Amino acid sequence: MTFEASPAPPNQAIPSGSGGKPSLGYNSFEPRALWNLILTIAVWLVAALGAVPLFSVLYMLIVKGGARLSGELFTELPPAGFEMGGGIGNAIQGTLVTVAIASLISIPIAIFAAIYLAELRPHSQISSVARFLAKVLTGFPSILAGVFVYAAVVLLMGSYSALAGGVALAVLMIPTITLTAEGAMQMVPQRMKDAAIGMGCTNTQVVWSVTLPTALPSIVTGVILAVARVAGESAPLLFTALFSNYWLRNITEPTASLSILIYNFSSMPFDNQIELAWAASLVLVMIVLSFNILSRFIGRPQV
After folding, report:
1. Is residue 102 classed exposed, middle or buried when 0-12, 13-18 and 19+ CB atoms within 10 A define those classes?
2. pLDDT per position as a tens digit, 12-27
């Protein structure tokens, strides 16, 4: 039995090269190729245009803030109005302490909430409500978190404090970590959980031994991104931690932070304070950038 190739439709032309054979070479003048080239150039132009503000800001920070980088900057207290020198050591300490407090509060709550939403009651009504509220809170204005914690913590304690600042930042971190962790747990293959259950594991053992270890890289990425977001917040700290010109010795005391120091010093009429504000901005950007780079390395697929 022999088969004959059916002739091409009369309206369809077959591109051919020498000898009447179809041409498989790339034709840059073909309409689809030209359209692809135009769109590629347009995307690169838009990306370059969007990178201009980023690189301009980084250039200004490096030029103006890099001039004050020294050991004194990280170990000295902020200077008074007409003093020269000084540093931002207490602001770096305050930022690290408040972010650490926020992480200690938010991470356990968010992880347990994600376990409930993804593993225990994923389709219940309370899970739907909690998931909706978490999505709403991701766009929650940060200053409102500060006002809430001011009424709930600062007024009860009777003073501003690093603890209140950490609670305000935790309010902003919880929804981000919860949604990220829930999505990571839902990506764990069901067959892995079924295999563990088939071996006699309880639900708690499945979550602890299978779900969490498998989803851990994505969960850690979400945690790092949440930390990077709140590290540069200033509005919640204005209502909770306020500011201090001294080293933090107790979490129940007001504390300095990089964002508030930048806000205060940038409006002063003294060149020394303005230079310190530029240096603090550079340090804060480097901290946030380090967190983002770390999240990229941790969250990339493992081969």
Report:
1. buried
2. 444 555 555 655 566 6
Phi, psi of 234 (to 5 degrees): -120, -35
How many alpha carbons lie under 13 Å from residue 121 in its C-beta half-sphere? 11
Task: Report the predicted TM-score, pTM, of the whole model to 2 decimal places.
Answer: 0.82
22, β-bridge pairs? 16
| Cα–Cα distance, 236 to 168 (Å, whole number) | 6
Residue for token digits 């971190």?
A: 173
The pLDDT tens digits of the residues spanning 240-258 come to 999 999 999 999 999 999 9
With beta carbons less than 8 A apart as the criterion, state whether 244 and 152 touch. Answer: no
- Looking at the chain, list the stretches that DSSP marks H as alpha helix, in order from N- to C-terminal side: 31-60, 71-75, 89-115, 125-138, 142-149, 155-157, 162-186, 190-198, 203-206, 212-231, 235-240, 258-266, 271-299
The torsion defined by the Cα of 208, 212, 216 and 220, in degrees rounded to 10, comes to -90
Residue 22 has phi, psi (to 5 degrees) of -60, 140
Region label for 282, one of left (φ > 0), alpha (ψ between -120 and 50) or beta (otherwise): alpha
Structure tokens at 63: 């030029």
Q: How many CB atoms lie within 10 A of CB 75?
A: 12
Q: How far is CA 68 from CA 64, 65, 88, 264, in A?
A: 8, 6, 11, 18
Instruction: Tell me the three-class secondary structure of 99-125, residue by residue.
Output: HHHHHHHHHHHHHHHHHHHHHHCCCCH
Helix axes 89-115, 212-231, angle to 10 degrees: 140
* CA 51 from centre of chain: 19
